[in-house]
Amino acid sequence: MKKILIVDDEPNIVMSLEYTFKKNNFEVFIARDGQEALDILEKQLPDVIILDVMMPMVDGFATLEQIKKDKRLQHCKVIFLSAKNKEKDIEKGISLGANLYVTKPFSIKKLVEQVQELIQ
User: Fold this and answer.
1) Could you give the CA distance from residue 85 to residue 103 in angstroms, rounded to a whole number?
2) Could you tell me the CATH superfamily of domain 2-115?
3) Half-sphere exposure in the Cβ direction for 13 (13 Å, CA)
4) Which of 6, 15, 47, 84 is 20 to 30 Å apart from 23, CA to CA?
5) CA dihedral 84, 15, 29, 81 (to 10 degrees)
6) C-alpha pair distances (Å), 71 with each of 6, 40, 42, 53, 68
7) pLDDT band for position 32 (50/70/90)?
């Protein structure tokens, strides 16, 4: 079973993504900010991390920088899912090492397809 970590501080997004990915046979882990995500990553090695940019405590960009420093997480695919849709934000996310940058509002169906493509 593939593992996915969803990192977002918006409960509605977390709930809908959790439900959808569980239905698609993923083991789902949830974090509501970057620090909580990093704590989970101490114990779990997900295949995919869906990461919001704007969060309390540690934002998505800083979280990704920490993920990229951890050799155990090199296989992880990272997708930014963010309302920050300016070209400079997208470029920053990709330059930090994200595999994909999806802007909100988004299609859950399309996001699932993108995740499946990344981990094949």
Assistant:
1) 6
2) Response regulator (3.40.50.2300)
3) 19
4) 84
5) -10
6) 20, 16, 12, 22, 7
7) very high
> Measured between alpha carbons, how far is residue 70 from residues 38, 40, 64, 74, 84 in Å?
10, 13, 10, 7, 26
Residue carrying structure tokens 């493509």? 117
Question: What is the residue-wise DSSP string for the chain?
Answer: -EEEEEE-S-HHHHHHHHHHHHHTTEEEEEESSHHHHHHHHHH---SEEEE-SS-SSS-HHHHHHHHHH-GGGTT-EEEEEES--SHHHHHHHHHTT-SEEEESS--HHHHHHHHHHHT-
Q: Helix crossing, 87-95 with 60-69: angle to 10°? A: 20
Q: Per-domain residue ranges for the chain? A: 2-115
Whole-prediction pTM value?
0.97
pLDDT at 21: 98
34-87 confidence digits (pLDDT tens): 999 999 999 999 999 999 999 998 999 999 999 999 999 999 999 999 999 999
